[in-house]
Design goal:
Dimethylsulfoxide Reductase, domain 2, 3 domains, 18% strand, binds ligand MGD, binds molybdenum atom, molybdopterin cofactor binding, Biotin/methionine sulfoxide reductase, electron transfer activity
């Protein structure tokens, strides 16, 4: 039997051919993702967690700090035993330390499917259990999520559904893409995507005459088919390049004075910054300001190229887009804000196919119109306690209870965490400086993880509860910008004794006395019917055909109507509409941000040099970007992901000159090292990367060489990245860039055994 299913990388059909699961893309998908072919291995891979497992020390000696996490063997125990112990531990922590001592940040992408969505389940459970310390913002856009509401408007409203692919194909003359719009990235959309349109939209625009300018250290960040102009500035210097472009627009009188006067606020402060002292000369009056020559010195793009690019931007309909990667870095707020200022100077914000975009092409959700009715989702419950951290500050919190830090104009204090509960995420994938994360997690009393597979996070836990995958349960797949809603049907029974996250939480809720509130007396199927009803009612209210759940389920999918492609809230700005910012206009400067007094995020876009630039010891920039062959760490053992490795090791790209200087040959094993750690990788020598930069994607499961050697033999770049916030404004993740040395590996490289379970013993 063929069933329909949805994953973050696409909608697909699955059916068994003997022992092998055959997975084929949705027939209407014009550009399906190769990541789909990781799925067949997910059902019965040896990396699956088969039974509840507990760290021996925790089971035998009880909760408490331990540096044995990640080193000790596990004991398999029965479901009832482990749930009894865990319920007791939750009760103990609540009674002795209060609800804020539980960290349910639990950040992570989990899987498609709206009801069994792991984040929704854990947050519902922990809210009902009395509350918890939660996380705010994401690793994806942490800096932009705080900045953009100050300077433009609500993050979702002004980033999604404003400039669409259709508009670009029809109207845009120049697309200036900082960080590119890599097709590898737009394979992905949370909840699922039935039609990947980016490749064809870019091709259609290019065929009409749109010119694409790629600003990135990596040439593949825009498809070669659109013949982009490739500018490769030094990583982390985009804000300087943008300021140089802005200076040219100003001094050549190419800026839109009317737009700046009518729709912007704070222009004067930025203008003054452009023309005033640049730090090169002590004499303020002799300075030419932050002009193209100033920018060229910082970013490495010749000044005449900067000037001619500025002229081109002003010569037609231009859209400026900033990939999320630029803000996942120290001072990551600045390139986003500077790009907005540049777009404001061009005066095209709110025009079709023009103005400013955040993240276009970095996820398939951007650049599309939304569905006209809400898709089914499990509603969030309010957390009864107010305790939160910006998500990427997790290790700081665990290492420094009671410590204070600044965030978005407030001074906050880290809570004292005793129990960490993770469900649907992988901090040993997403967090920076993994040795530090290990030390941080050693300090808590109890670390609980629900996982389907033995990730490094599961291996570092005290209690590992085996979760089903979407392939083993029914659910509704929907994203909100893709019109298709998918009836996700199981293709396999639960693996060994795995259970649904919902079922695990329901069992714990029963032990803690709130089962009825948690389940509301519904079976999972009844929940699906309940979630569908909201969409069904919204369809009926708007006069659209409104299939019942039974009709939807029998059909396997339903196509929802979509909203108009009208430019959203930025288009209304031009007709006198007001934004939700402090002045109601675009904030080129912000008195509010200035009032916070942060020198790492002043009151207007600025160039702030990195605090850890390349040095004699660590001369290379490391770009650790999203992997082309999988979503983050998910299904790293799958066929597509495995095919991208060499002898099971992740591939690092390096420029021929940098390779030759180090005696590194294509395919050789290399060691990347800095003060935080080291990892191995396989070298790919290519001139598609800027000199002085190496690139190693995220997602290889962290695999330490030995108990006493944290070198990752598999190629996880987060052993190297720095665990610091973007600035005091947003405290966002800065994992994208760091500096390293790279050397040829001498000797026989250790074999990679990343996807094996840890040592597990049956309980006596
Ligand atoms: N150096 C560096 N680091 C980065 C980034 C970077 O650019 N550079 N990017 C960052 C970004 S943008 C992001 S979004 C994060 C991503 O970080 P994560 O979202 O944490 O990464 P995933 O690998 O998607 O982790 C999801 C985990 O959930 C598990 N899972 C899937 N479905 C279920 C389920 O139904 N139930 C349960 N219990 N578990 C499930 C999967 O097996 C997997 O281990 O990484 C960040 N880290
Ligand atoms: N295949 C695949 N696609 C994904 C994901 C995945 O795991 N796999 N993850 C998804 C998620 S959660 C997110 S948030 C998005 C993230 O979207 P992004 O953050 O935009 O994606 P990245 O691939 O990390 O970075 C994009 C490109 O930016 C370039 N870059 C890095 N540093 C700089 C710099 O300083 N300046 C300039 N100009 N360019 C720079 C790099 O060459 C990199 O390839 O991707 C999504 N798409
Ligand atoms: Mo992300």
């Amino acid at each position: 039997m063929t069933v329909s299913h949805s994953a973050h990388w696409g909608v697909f059909r699955a059916e068994w051919e003997g022992e092998r699961l055959r997975v084929t893309p949705h027939p209407d998908d014009p550009d399906p993702s190769p990541v789909l072919q990781n799925v067949p291995d997910a059902v019965r891979h040896p990396a699956r967690v088969a039974r509840p497992a507990v760290r021996r020390g925790w089971w035998e000696h009880g909760p408490g700090p331990s540096d044995r996490r990640g080193h000790e063997e596990f004991i398999e125990v029965g479901w009832d035993e482990v749930l009894d112990r865990l319920a007791g531990e939750l009760r103990r922590v609540h009674t002795d330390h209060g609800p804020t001592a539980v960290y349910g940040g639990s950040y992570g992408w989990a899987s498609a499917g709206r009801f069994h969505h792991a984040q929704s389940q854990i947050h519902r459970f922990l809210s009902m259990a009395g509350g918890y310390t939660q996380s705010v913002n994401t690793y994806s856009g942490g800096a932009a999520e705080v900045l953009i509401p100050h300077v433009l408007g609500p993050f979702d409203a002004v980033t999604r559904s404003v400039v669409t692919w259709d508009q670009i194909a029809a109207h845009t003359d120049t697309v200036l893409a900082f960080g590119g719009m890599a097709l590898k990235n737009s394979q992905i959309a949370p909840g699922g995507m039935s039609r990947h349109v980016e490749r064809s939209a870019m091709a259609a625009a290019s065929a009409r005459g749109t010119r694409f300018v790629l600003v990135s250290p990596l040439r593949p960040d825009l498809p070669a088919a659109v013949s982009p102009q490739w500018l490769a500035p030094e990583p982390g210097t985009d804000a300087a390049l943008m300021i140089g472009l802005a200076h040219t627009l100003l001094v050549e009188d190419l800026h839109d004075r009317d737009f700046l006067r009518d729709h912007c606020d704070g222009w004067e402060a930025f203008r003054e910054y452009l023309v005033s002292g640049d730090g090169r000369s002590g004499d303020h009056r002799r300075s030419r300001g932050r002009d193209a020559d100033w920018a060229a010195e910082i970013c490495g793009i010749p000044a005449d190229e900067i000037r001619s690019l500025a002229r081109r931007l002003a010569a037609g309909r231009t859209v400026i887009t900033v990939a999320q990667s630029l803000q996942r870095a120290e001072h990551g707020e600045q390139p986003v804000w500077a790009a907005l200022a540049l777009a404001a100077m061009l005066g095209q914000i709110g025009l079709p196919g023009g103005g400013f975009c955040y993240g276009l092409g970095s996820l398939a959700h951007y650049g599309r119109v939304r569905t006209a009715v809400p898709v089914p989702t499990l509603a969030r419950r309010p957390n009864p306690v107010r305790s939160f951290i910006p998500v990427a500050r997790v290790a700081d919190m665990l290492l420094d209870p009671g410590g204070s830090y600044a965030y978005n104009g407030s001074d906050l204090t880290y809570p004292d965490i005793r129990l960490v509960y993770w469900c649907g995420g992988n901090p040993f994938h997403h967090h920076q400086d993994l040795s530090r994360l290990r030390r941080a997690l050693a300090r808590v009393d109890t670390f609980v993880v629900h996982e389907s597979v033995w990730t490094a996070t599961a291996r570092h836990a005290d209690v590992v509860l085996p979760a089903t995958t979407t392939l083993e349960r029914e659910d509704i797949g929907a994203g909100g910008t893709d019109a298709l809603v998918v009836a996700m049907k199981p293709v396999a029974p639960p693996y060994e004794s795995a259970r649904d996250d919902h079922a695990i939480f329901a069992e714990l809720a029963a032990r803690l006395g709130f089962a009825e509130r948690f389940t509301e007396g519904r079976t999972p199927r009844e929940w699906l019917v309940h979630l569908w009803e909201r969409t069904e009612k919204a369809l009926a209210n708007k006069g659209f055909p409104a299939p019942t759940f039974e009709e939807f389920w029998a059909a396997g999918e339903v196509t929802l109507p979509t909203g108009p492609d009208d430019g959203g809230m930025l288009a209304t700005l031009r007709d006198g509409g007001r934004l939700t910012t402090e002045s109601g206009r675009v904030q080129i400067g912000s008195a509010v941000i200035a009032s916070f007094g942060y020198d790492d995020c002043p009151g207007h876009p600025a160039w702030i040099p990195p605090s850890d630039p390349p040095s004699a010891r660590h001369p290379l920039w490391l770009v650790s970007n999203q992997p082309a062959t999988r979503l983050h760490s998910q299904l790293d053992f799958g066929a597509t992901s495995a095919a991208g490795k060499v002898d099971g090791r992740e591939v690092m790209r390096i420029h021929p000159a940098d390779a030759a200087a180090r005696g590194i040959e294509d395919g050789a094993v290399v060691r990347l090292v800095n003060d935080r750690g080291a990892c191995l990788a396989a070298a790919r020598v290519t001139d598609e990367i800027r000199g002085g930069v190496v690139q190693l994607p995220t997602g290889a499961w962290y695999t330490p060489a030995a108990d006493d050697d944290p070198t990752c033999v598999h190629g996880n770049p987060n052993v190297l990245t720095r665990d610091v916030g973007s600035s005091r404004l947003a405290q966002g993740c800065t994992g994208q860039l760091t500096t390293v040395q790279v050397e040829a590996y001498v000797g026989v490289p250790p074999a990679v055994q990343a996807h094996r379970p840890p040592r597990i013993r049956q309980a006596e």
